[in-house]
User: What shape does this take?
Amino acid sequence: SYELTQPVSVSVALGQTAWITCEGDSVGDKSVHWYQQKSGQAPVLVIYRDTRRPSGIPERLSGSNSGNTATLTLTGAQAADEGDYYCQVWDSGTVVFGGGTKLTVL
Amino acid sequence: EVQLVESGGGLVQPGGSLRLSCAASGFTFHTYWMYWVRQSPGKGLVWVSSINSDGTTVEYADSVRGRFTVSKDYAKDTLYLQMNSLRAEDTALYYCARVNMAAAGTFDSWGQGTQVTVSS
Assistant: This one.
């Protein structure tokens, strides 16, 4: 079965840039979606189709996808960005989530 | 405004049953695929079950197949998950989510979740 691998945790200083990766076999050939889950809350879609932002999502969140790695980039990290981030794709009609990455803003 | 409100969770003994509900509003319920996704304490998101827009196709994760049944009530705009033969490893927060197949299969709306605890 298809797997997506994310780092367990990423730390970033306030105002700096954080990168959260999502690795999978030829993931660049798939559409990757990203979700943010703050503590005690349901996940929220923040990036879809690799690079697109739903309405209301700040421009400091961006995405890219190529080869075997998709990346979520947070530019100018704020305290409000803390939480868990999950990547997601579809493989043969089945949804696949990455294991999640805990982002800490220092 | 799209809303998904889960209910029906609780504490149940191993081998017991629960029926989760997810009341949908703010969108045309019968045109969307709906999913159940669970999250064990401190863990990630795991797909449990899905049902297509007209209810003709249902799917289950291997871990729940044969024990769980997903269904839709179009008159009530409600999604259900009947869970039988519950095990300790089914303990989790259960979310229902709407999947937008027109937007590359994004989970674009989620409920707040309902907690299921299986313990003696």
About this structure: Residues 4 and 111 of chain B are 5 Å apart (CA to CA). DSSP finds no helices and eleven strands in chain B.
